User: What shape does this take?
Amino acid sequence: MGLFAPLQIGPHRLQNRIIMAPLGRARADESRAPTSIVDIYYAQRAGAGLIVSEATHISPMSNGRPGAAAHHLDSQNDAWTRVVSTLHHAGGLIFQQLYQVGRKAHPSRLPGGAIPGAPSAVAAQGETPTALGPQPFPVPRALAPREISAVVDEFRVAARNAKRAGFDGVELHGANGFLIDQFLRDGSNRRADIYGGAIYNRARFLLDVVDAVSSVFGADRVGVRLSPHFRSDGIADSNPAATFSYAAAALNERRIAYLHIVEGPPEASEFFPESPAKPLAPLLREAFHGPLILAGGYDQASAETTIGSGLADAIAFGRLFIANPDLPERFRKGAPLNVPDPSTFYTGGARGYIDYPSLPAVEAAE
Assistant: This one.
């Protein structure tokens, strides 16, 4: 079993186990609708077994850097429909990653300068881009129970929009210190009601959202991404092994399409800080029996080894897919890889987005 073996995820038979990771690239317009070059970008990468779209905001109350995409307006849905149609014409599969940033929003980017909501009034560490330059993350306000229910419904509506646009499924962004992750961890969730305290209460929001979007797509078209080792914004948990294995077991009971874990191989630790000394993937593999995807600094060799060992069913690649639209073909041929240019990751426009050469272009130039 290797990277080029097919894989069944829900009703979809993937042509390979090379997944394109969700990659925010800041190529949406001022209304947060994907621009026409987004169509080209994803279609260029249709050779992936599955593409997970860039993280996409579910409502005006979730707002990030300029150029980040959203999916709660009809105009955004029209643009996403165009993106998905172009990708499907190229033969690809795509799930839309949906998220709410919670405490990592900034009032200057929210309607009426609103204070962002979160599980508890605990600020994230670090800064966020604003029109006036980088600003510290604000202290959020604790969401009332009725507001939590409203956010769950916003996820449901976003899933309906994704289905209307033709996406093959959705992935819930429960990683990287965003709202779902904030509810899971006891460092950011200090609540004393049914959404806080014990692990099963802290996992309730995640599971409520899973149930909501499953009511739209069916659980076998819903994936979840988690990042048990993420620490860079100060988010923390006193017992991540217990927290994330509980979440994995609960997701297993719901028979979701896949579980996507951010955990790189130990040899990637020099450039990927979430490559842990004590991996949790083996523990999560025991708790979750469906397809398991790992992501985080993998190259072809480490990906083949990981899949061959049975630790994961597929590997997601991020930066390698940015620079190599034909990454699966390059892996298949053992061809050289283009090097990504980080200076163009979030700059907008075609440069560093759709102009990386494909293998035929490289071969023709030699």
Summary: The longest helix spans residues 145-165.
